């Protein structure tokens, strides 16, 4: 007679979970809200249960071993909005590079933004930067030159970077969408969905210590939220193992200079993380 027929539902569940642990599949059922930045492998190793002892065929059925209660892992200090998963890991391209991503992008015509653009604005800066700035999309000057943040807002961003004790060549700068939206309108959801995978690949390749999202569109794309930037500006989040800070876009600061002090507070948090000293006068 099958011994499983005499098991209670709880015993069957415990036996199944131990079986998953033996296959290193523990992270599939681990509560992702408490995973933080730990790798799936490390979580499985820390939470592994004792293996099931398989009795000899002639012996009587044994009672499955019940795992002793464990203390829940301590949650990450950062709010986890969009933690990494195996499904996100699966979209990482092996041996990827910024050059390969640009080649894959090609002379892109995947969405309507390509119809009126002048140049694709891919990104620029240090390919091994510890800090990446992500904006919304190119403006007029960027569309003409093919470089990100070179207009009025770009000049202000340069001043912000220099105030942090860095130069533009020390960081990497890119946008969610690579083509200028008509009349500098906000990119539509389908345009973001089409173009953002290239941004995700850029961030995976660079592997920065910190990401600063400039404006709501960038933050919403990376954190997969529809909340306004006022809801989460100035707070650290986790993006696939990298700390992310959202702040106001330089174009917003040109219209609202009073908000510069709030942005400077956000940048000081980033500087503390990276061990930078201010050159701001």
The shape, in one word, is: globular
SSE pattern, N- to C-terminal? HHHHEEHHEHEHEEHH
Which structural category fits the helices and strands? alpha/beta
Strand arrangement, major sheet: 1-3-2-4-6-5
CATH class call of the largest domain:
Alpha Beta
CATH topology of the largest domain: Uracil-DNA Glycosylase, subunit E
Mean pLDDT: 81
Let me know the largest β-sheet: 6 strands, mixed
Cα gyration radius (Å)? 24 Å
How far apart the termini lie comes to: 82 Å
DSSP E strands, number: 6
User: What is the total domain count?
Assistant: 2
In helices, the fraction of residues equals: 25-40%
Question: What's the CATH architecture of the largest domain?
Answer: 3-Layer(aba) Sandwich
Walk me through the structure.
The protein has 281 residues and is α/β, with parallel strands linked by helices. The chain has two domains: 1-76, no CATH class; 86-274, Uracil-DNA Glycosylase, subunit E (3-Layer(aba) Sandwich). It is built from ten helices and six strands; from the N terminus they run H-H-H-H-E-E-H-H-E-H-E-H-E-E-H-H. The chain has helices at 9-22, 40-46, 86-89, 98-105, 140-145, 152-163, 189-206, 216-223, 250-255, 260-274; strands at 124-125, 131-135, 172-175, 210-214, 236-239, 242-247. It has a six-stranded mixed β-sheet, sandwiched between helices. A hairpin with a 2-residue loop joins strand 5 (236-239) and strand 6. Helix 4 (98-105) packs antiparallel against helix 7 (189-206). The termini are far apart. Residues 29-87 have low confidence and may be disordered.
